[in-house]
Amino acid sequence: EGLSTVIIGRPNVGKSSLLNQLVHESKAIVTNVPGTTRDVIEEYVNVQGVPLRLVDTAGIRDTEDLVEKIGVSRSKEILKTAELVLLLINSHEELTDEDRMLFQLIGTTPAIILLNKADLPLNTSVDEVKNLAGSNPILRTSMTDDRGLEELEQAIASLF
Ligand code: GDP
Ligand code: MG
Q1: What are the C-alpha distances in Å from 122 to residues 59, 100, 105?
Q2: Domain boundaries, the chain
Q3: Which residues of the chain have pLDDT under 70?
Q4: Ligand 1 proximity of 9 Cβ (cutoff 6 Å)
Q5: Is the ipTM of this complex over 0.95?
Q6: Does ligand 1 come within 6 angstroms of the Cβ of 58?
Q7: Fold classified for 3-159
Q8: How many angstroms separate the Cα of 100 from the Cα of each of 97, 110, 143?
């Protein structure tokens, strides 16, 4: 049981690092090699009284894969079951079409947008993210220095 919470984002944005931070353990393998997470990983965690079933999705490798192969349908399938989406953006990079597509896939599911890698210089257009995010909250986070994790836990707790 637990609220189905799906972590999405391009490869290497920090999805598995986030899962590990939230469960306070190294459950998912983190490397700097895109495509490290091949299987879907599930972990149960209680965030400020809210029980979550966290799902770490495998990164989808490029736009061609995303559009022409199984990427979109797989993401959509997983997202159909989501009660909460955590969408990670690498804020050290400019937005890509894959990022923009992931915003579209969220649909009406409650989502929290994480501008991750906040320990590095900001290269993402925050204005564009705000437009894409609509009313969903946007947080600056870093998985390497724990920045924003407290705020994330509070944001999750305040949604449910
Ligand atoms: P995933 O592919 O989205 O699951 O990303 P990972 O969690 O495997 O992380 C990919 C790489 O980015 C690893 O080398 C992480 O250590 C690094 N990383 C993740 N989060 C951050 C962050 O907030 N700041 C920095 N500087 N590196 C990060
Ligand atoms: Mg991963």
Answers
A1: 22, 18, 24
A2: 3-159
A3: 25-40, 58-75
A4: yes
A5: yes
A6: no
A7: Rossmann fold (3.40.50)
A8: 5, 17, 22
